[in-house]
Amino acid sequence: MKILIIGSKGFIGQHLLNFYRLQADKDVWGCDVSAEFEDSKYILMDNSNSDFESIFRSNHFDACINCSGAASVPESLLNPSHDFYLNTFNVFNLLNNIRIFSPSCKFLNLSSAAVYGNPTKLPIAEDASLQPMSPYGYHKVMAENICKEFKEFYNIDACSVRIFSAYGNSLKKQLFWDVYKKSKGSNYIDFFGTGKETRDFIHISDVVQAIDLILQNSAFDVDCYNIANGEEIEIRVAIEQLLYEIGWQGEFKFNNHNRAGDPLYWCADIKKIKDLGYAQEITIKQGLKEYSEWLKELD
Questions:
Q1: Entry pTM
Q2: Spatial distance between the Cα atoms of 149 and 220, rounded to a whole number of angstroms
Q3: CATH number of the domain at 2-166+202-229+275-281, out of 1.10.10.10, 3.40.50.12780, 3.40.50.720, 3.90.180.10?
Q4: What is the pLDDT of residues 37-57, one digit of tens each?
């Protein structure tokens, strides 16, 4: 199987690339905007003008996994046009070039739990109403609908994966990176919210496991899949665990102010990926211990 990973320098993309390159039956190509001189199967893209035509005109891929795009709710509020370009327009551009040059290529799109917003009930199943709370969430919904458009009118096989709170080695943004950065050189930390907000955390190795199961087994009939562990964990508990693992001594408090675009409570219904064979391998305690060891290597 010949696989193209768009956004292969990003957090999820690089882990997928490394995973598939260990498999002898996979011919795996990376694609991103950062220069790479040591990888003969890497395609450099222009950051301001993604030329997907040249990729699909010159190569036949059995599957394209789109890990590219912006992944920041606050940034999407500040610069919605940039977020739209990366998370929505690029999906259309990718699918349109697949339609023209490689219509048998399956398209797996990384979406987000942000499409749900604040759910009315937990756990959140894939058929729940979509009520995004940020431009980022809206643009992810649009991208999912573009996948449906290309399936309905052009019979392009596509599916979307709604990833919840992914974390792990090499991630330098979001909650746990923020905790680490704030802990450096300080014995007091202030966080947004109350600490009672919840997330459904999933380690990057389990994200990769779930995506691989979907790539192998999905009908690609514009299916959507939650990628999470079906476990609701309080933000305070997760922060305490990481601070314990990195050996931080101090005091932290929550300011009782929620950031715009941030949901309050998340827990996914993961029956669909469990039916494909998914089983959690890394607990939050194990994952944060591993992440803390990686952080210590940065000091």
A1: 0.96
A2: 13
A3: 3.40.50.720
A4: 899 999 999 877 778 999 999
